[in-house]
Write a structure and sequence with these properties.
Blueprint (H helix, E strand, L loop, with lengths): L4 E5 L18 H4 L9 H12 L2 E4 L28 H21 L5 E8 L2 E2 L2 E2 L4 E4 L5 H16 L4 E3 L10 H9 L5 E7 L6 H16 L1
Parallel strand pairs: 1-2, 1-3, 3-8, 6-7
Antiparallel strand pairs: 4-5, 6-8
Helix pairs in contact: 2-6
Length: 218
C-alpha cells in the first residue's frame, strides 16, 4: 500500500515581503548567503514532491525576519532584522508563520509521513562536514528510528555518504519536533538535510530520490 507523504521546506527562500520593503533593509550579500535561507533546499523539495507525487508547502520568507522552523516560544524564532519592525508588522509576520503551520497540519495525512527538506553548508567554522545527506529523527520513536536506519543502509549501499541526526539532532526544536508534541504518536516526520555541495550533483541526488521513492511509494 502506498504511503501518503507530505513535503515541506521551511527555509526555501530569502524573500522580504513587499509590504515590508520600506521598513526593513537587508544587504544583498547577506540575503544571498546561507544565513538567509537553505540554498538548494527548494529545488530538492520540488523534485522529491514530483517524484513522490506529494503535496508541497514552501516558505520563501527569509529566516532573517522570522524562522519558520522554530517554535513560537523559541527565543531565536525572530531574526535579527525583525527587531526594527513595528508591532503591527511583527503581528502580520507572525500571522503568516501561524497560517503556514496550520495549513500543513490540516494537510498531514493520517498514517502518513512528513518530510521537511533542508540543506547545510559543506563547511562550518572551517571544519569540513563529511556527509552528503542526513536524516534527522527522534530516536525515542520506534517507527521513525526503523525508517531512518533502513534509509541510511540503502543510501550507503548506493554510494551516498549518509548519516543520522547530523549535523543537528532530530529531537531539537524544529517543525517536526513541534508536530510530535502537538499531534502525538500518530505523527511520523523527518528532516532531510542535503549537503549544499551535492544539490547540483545529478548522480548523487538521483540516488537519494530513488531510495526515497522506493521506500515511500512502493
Amino acid at each position: 500500500m502506498k504511503t501518503k507523504i507530505l513535503i515541506t521546506c521551511e527555509h526555501a527562500g530569502n524573500q522580504i515581503p513587499g509590504w515590508l520593503a520600506r521598513e526593513v533593509e537587508i544587504p544583498q550579500k547577506t540575503l544571498e548567503s546561507h544565513v538567509a535561507y537553505d540554498k538548494g533546499a527548494m529545488k530538492m523539495a520540488k523534485e522529491i514532491s514530483r517524484q513522490l507525487k506529494s503535496d508541497l508547502f514552501v516558505n520563501k520568507v527569509t529566516r532573517l525576519l522570522i524562522d519558520y522552523n522554530r517554535s513560537i516560544t523559541n527565543k531565536h524564532v525572530w531574526g535579527k532584522y525583525s527587531q526594527c519592525l513595528s508591532e503591527k508588522s511583527r503581528l502580520r509576520l507572525l500571522k503568516t508563520f501561524i497560517d503556514y503551520r496550520n495549513s500543513i497540519k490540516k494537510k498531514l495525512p493520517r498514517e502518513g509521513i512528513h518530510l521537511a527538506v533542508h540543506s547545510f553548508t559543506p563547511k562550518k567554522n572551517g571544519v569540513q562536514r563529511n556527509c552528503d545527506f542526513s536524516i534527522l529523527y527522534d530516536p525515542a520513536r520506534k517507527k521513525e528510528k526503523e525508517i531512518a536506519k533502513r534509509l541510511k543502509k540503502e543510501l550507503i549501499k548506493s554510494g551516498v555518504k549518509c548519516r543520522l541526526n547530523y549535523p543537528y539532532l532530530g529531537k531539537t526544536d524544529g517543525l517536526a519536533t513541534s508536530f510530535r508534541k502537538e499531534i502525538g504518536l500518530s505523527y511520523v516526520g523527518f528532516e532531510l538535510e542535503f549537503n549544499q555541495k551535492i544539490v547540483n550533483d545529478r548522480e548523487k541526488t538521483q540516488k537519494i530520490l530513488e531510495v526515497l521513492k522506493r521506500n515511500f511509494t512502493e
